[in-house]
TrEMBL record:
SUPFAM superfamilies: alpha/beta-Hydrolases (SSF53474). InterPro entries: AB_hydrolase_1, AB_hydrolase_fold, AB_hydrolase_sf. It comes from the Bacteria. Pfam families: Abhydrolase_1. Residues 70-303 form the AB hydrolase-1 domain. This is AB hydrolase-1 domain-containing protein.
Length: 326
């Protein structure tokens, strides 16, 4: 057995000391990184989570992303939670984004033959959805038919609502009936929807969906077929719901007096180039809700959230920043 001389022993001890020092530095580096991750928040937004919740005897899919004050998005017709994809990321950076698919919409099975579809039913579903998630009070955002649903839910359940954001809500009871403008808008609306309803009643829900999109977005015939594929798919997936919508009972009447007693911050939006039906309703709601803010998005019509999602998101975020939760 060879015994190392003094020089070799010193070299070996030095090498061990160097190795121990390097290992210590690695451990310190890892520890420092861990501590920094705990005290410095990441700017990245967490990935969206697809979930389901059972309320009122039905299972509703929803997507959730971000943290902070909850902002619940309610889609229109014919659509589902996918309609909010263009604005999801921007909202989720600062708030808890929640979008769900309403009963009878989306690709899932219906709980029955559709006989229970009504704005009243969907508004009750929304209230139960918020309560089941234990999320209230929430900021509510609704587009078109979804705006009608959230307005109905809000006036009935104000304690669940932190603020109300409406984009061209189709609250027909708020359309003025004592003016030439209001009467003309109602007639134009009926004329626009006539071929859509006829197609739905004839059993051609796909054609009805295409005609409805082209009508409300003021597009020439055949333009639907030039939509991006994901948008076409979303609309056609929901075409089957249109016959139910047109056969549904009238929605609960919303009056100016009801809105005057709705003491919640409210943002009313419409497109600069939209139809008179939506313009007059937006103006009427804006006048009735105390302190309501009216915003007109430039160069868009009923398609604002998808044609210019950046402008839509900016308006929503600006409003929310002025009305933080207590």
């Amino acid at each position: 057995m060879r015994i190392p001389d003094e020089k070799e022993s010193r070299r070996t001890a030095g090498e061990r000391s160097q190795q121990n020092w390097e290992e210590a530095m690695v451990r310190l580096s890892v520890l420092a990184s861990l501590l920094l991750s705990l005290v410095i928040p990441s700017s990245a937004t967490s990935a969206p989570l697809a979930k389901e919740v059972e309320i009122n005897g039905v299972r509703l899919p929803y997507v959730e992303q971000g943290s902070g004050e909850p902002v619940v998005f309610v889609h229109g017709v014919p659509s589902d939670l996918r309609s909010w994809e263009p604005v999801r990321e921007s909202i989720a950076k600062k708030y808890r984004f929640i979008a769900y698919t309403q009963r009878y919409f989306g690709t899932g099975p219906w709980p029955d033959d559709g006989k229970n579809l009504s704005v009243a039913t969907l508004a009750d579903d929304l209230a139960k959805f918020i309560a089941t998630l234990n999320a209230g009070p929430v900021h509510l955002v609704g587009w078109s038919y979804g705006g009608q649903v959230i307005t109905t839910a809000a006036v009935k359940n104000p304690s669940l609502v932190r603020s109300l954001i409406l984009y061209e809500a189709s609250v027909a009871s708020m359309l003025p009936t004592d003016s030439a403008e209001g009467k003309a808008a109602r007639e134009d609306r009926a004329k626009m929807l006539a071929p859509v309803i006829a197609a739905a009643k004839a059993g051609d829900a796909v054609q009805a969906a295409k005609l409805l999109q082209e009508a409300v977005f003021q597009l020439p015939p055949g333009e639907f077929d030039r939509f991006p594929q994901d948008r076409q798919t979303r609309v056609l997936d929901n075409a089957r719901t249109l016959p139910l919508v047109f056969a549904a009972p009238p929605p609960p009447v919303i009056t100016c007096d009801m809105l005057k007693s709705f003491a919640r911050p409210t943002l009313v939006m419409r497109g600069e180039k939209t139809q008179a039906f939506y313009t007059l309703i937006a103006e009427a709601i804006g006048k009735c809700v105390p302190g309501a803010q009216l915003v007109v998005l430039p160069n868009v019509n009923h398609d604002g959230p998808v044609r210019d999602p950046a402008a839509f998101s900016a308006a929503v975020l600006d409003f929310l920043s002025k009305h933080p939760g207590l």
